[in-house]
Design goal:
The complex is a heterotrimer of chains A (about 325), B (about 260) and C (about 400). Chain A is α/β, with parallel strands linked by helices. Chain A has helices spanning about 20-35, 75-85, 105-110, 225-235, 240-245, 275-280, 310-330; strands spanning about 5-10, 10, 15, 40-45, 60-65, 90-95, 115-125, 130-135, 140-145, 155-160, 175-180, 190-195, 210-215, 235-240, 265-270, 290-295, 305-310. The radius of gyration of chain A is 22 Å and the shape is elongated. Chain C has 20 helices and eight strands. Chains in contact: A-B, A-C, B-C.
Amino acid sequence: MTGTICVLAEQWNGQISEVTYEALALGREVAGQLGVPLTAILTGSHSRELAAALGAADAVVYVDHPLLAEVIPQTCADALVQVLTGSRPRALLVPLTNISLGIGTLIGSRMGVPVVNFCTDIKVVDGKLAARCVLYGGKIEAMADAEAVPGLEPAVFGIWPGARPSDRGRIARPVPVTDAAVVLEGTRAIRLSKYIQPEAGDVDLTRQEVLVAVGRGIQDRANLEMAEELAKSLGGAVCGSRPVIDQGWLPLSRQVGKSGLTVKPKLYIALGISGAPEHVEGMKDSKLIIAVNSDPRAPIFNVAHYGILGDVLETLPALTAAVEARKTIAHHA
Amino acid sequence: MHVLVLLKMVPDVVEDLEIASDRRALDLDSLRMILSEPDDHALEQALLLKERLGAVVTVLALDAPEVDDALFTAAAKGADRVIKIVGMDAGATTRQAARCFSQVIADDTGIVPVDLILTGVQAIDDLDGLVAPLVADALHMPFLGIITGITLDASGTTAHVIKEFPGGVRGEFEIQLPAVLGIQAAERPPRYVPVAKVRAAMKSVAIECAQVPALADGGWPAVNVVEMKHNEPPAHAKMLDGTPDQVSDRVCGILAERAIF
Amino acid sequence: MSTCPVTLEMLPQHPDGREILTCLQCGVCAGTCPYGDVMEYPPRRMIAMMRAGMLEKVFTSDSLLACVACYACMAKCPRGIRLTEILLPLMKEQALTHLPELPRELQRALQNTLRYGNPMGEPSRKRAAWVKTAGVPIRILSEDRKPADTLWFVECYTSYYPRGQDNSRATARIFHRLGIDFAILGNEEKCAGECGRLTWEPGLFETLMDYNMAVFQKYQFNRVVTSCPHAHNAFKNRYPALGFNWGLEHVTPFLARHLDRLEPLLTKKLPYSVTYHDSCCLGRQNEFYEAPRQLLRAIPGMKLVEMVHNRVNAICCGGGGGGMWLDTYFKAKGYERLSERRVKEAAATGADVLAVSCPYEVSRFEDALKVLGLDKRMMVRDVTELLAEAMEE
């Protein structure tokens, strides 16, 4: 793996995660520009078959160990440092998700190498790697030089979800897989007791074609009814961003975003949602996004296809009325 | 039981952020600083442990504008001791901050022993790393992040914690103390403390000062910010203008075109 | 009116507090309270609990959350006990520390007011952004320190909220046409804090009072005119303790005082029937009942009709005492929103326009009209908006 661009692959629920594919897509581009191979590292226990999904890479290193069955950041970092020390890639792309958060930091500190977080892009500038990072809740963009001090490899890039379309990293192609052995202490300092599934909702958001999403701008639990009406008119379901779930206005099963579900419906109507990265992550691949917000600078307008600058509580009933009117016309036509 | 909370101040993004003239950092003079929200949750979680188990809560923060407010507020909420680390350069990176915390904790005989160290899972300015795993490694403690619940077992030597995973799934883990946890959210939203209590704390509570340690150049390679600017993302929604009724009509037209009806 | 703060301990010793001991337990307060039917401890019971030495129970119940500081009880009390002014704020202060959890929206409003000088959490640096859209020149004292005759204290909703800005623009236009020598504080202005005082948070109020007095003392002016009746109350009742000694008026009585010069400017006919809602602070608290009505009658074409409950009997919009940020909480408990109750009464008059003179009321009543489906039949306008509309360019 020496000198390669390397992507840390994540698995969740028996599958390679979406953000891994996004990181692979980005990694492919960078590797191509540098003329070096793209490699991937996958850790786990008895999950070697998942390596076959990493066809975007030129080679995969699979690390198997019972203690890698769950992702415990320090244990994972332990294993990865052993693998990487032997043959250091030039760069390591680590997804910044609930699964892998912390691993990049630990590798950086244990190997004495640079770490750059919140990356949405990596550029090659004068033959060196620079990252485009989005900081301060998405308000500021920084270009960071990750290879300021020569000889410190790999440079670790924490890849923010949405850096590239995941499809570009999903390539069906046979890829050679080698196994790397690691020695991990049987320390029982951290142990998974169990997973707790969210309450089964009446609705599986990931299967809905239309989602009407509400954020803080809905202002009041009482206004949810209006959103339900619109959803019903369009044959879809209501979901929400984290603040709405935190308030208890919608159950956890209706949360879209970082700690909730990722959805890709045909239509996503975002009502009073500012568009914080944690939410956008969960819906950015929706086919058609229409956003209503009273703040012209709400980041949601950078993700939406169509935007309505206005009061959610005025626009929402008007939308429902217009949809119902169209349906009536269509019905009578 | 002794719980230590690590707090960091970050730029308050409610006000516009201005870029410094060298275009490589924020203009610090124009900023207001606010307690990093996940750190506020970490403090709340510590106070809940104090209420439930009688834990003693110490708060340790890096000096920054408006940090005194945050520390007096923490004291008014119930923190037993509030300590500020002074002498740090403005604009310290996260890795420097973590280094600083770790060394002060290790050196200060008044702080250790500690059973649990809580801090926010991530801050909006954590460009070069995260505080929780770095402090854990430096102090040879186990670490878990994205935590939303903590209970102690009967012996008080093991914590049962809830960690968030994608899709609304949660994982329950056992972790041996002492340990470091990166808090995503406290079990309750951070409590309100009346301003009168904070003002009273300002008169009655002393913020202790710890000098920033001489940090051995343990080589954390700096991440050089070459340029900083306001984020102008490439795409922007096509804006639909008009009254709610007019706009709704246009939306219906778009939906019909896309055969969503 | 007492200007020094009374505490629960010293209540019986203080002249204003001693009155509480004369309560007859007649229950008129509970009967007149708009939420009297849902409050576990209306003033009568509070006083009874105080006498029984059982105030703890009052503090740990959430009864006090339902008090919207509307002054109805105080206005009707046959003993003239200063309920809304003295007893209720003290009770609320205690409840704040005893309640297991403060409703989130209210908490956020209080925290925002402390940090950003407004309950909405809007940036303090944007408070005067609306000035650019006013269409008439508006002087900001920090930029131009010449003395002004009138300091116009704009307040929060009228600075940040679009409908509040409509009011501010109207006010600025009228001041300009009348040739008033006025200026504003701009971004230096922070909430006067009245809602902090009546809403559980005397510490917040003191912090804002200290700040605002320091800002006032930087400049020279003869009087303060404010668009917000709550600010008016704070300046009138509490700020004098810190040295506030300028003339003070709310915009409505101020304009009524200038009616002889204003009336000839009202040339456009507004053929509406209008019913006027007496705001609690302007009305019951200060008895400014006729000034707004005089102004409305001066508008050509306008026909004034009264609601069943008017003047001293008016029903609160529900925004005071923290109610502005407790709608979700009330709804969850099944209470009827006071703004909805009032709006039904307004609609029953058949009027086209519901006229108000407090910035809270515009958003509350417009919301209520929408929720009740009455928004096509009736619109809400501040008195200053109507006056500006009647002033042709």
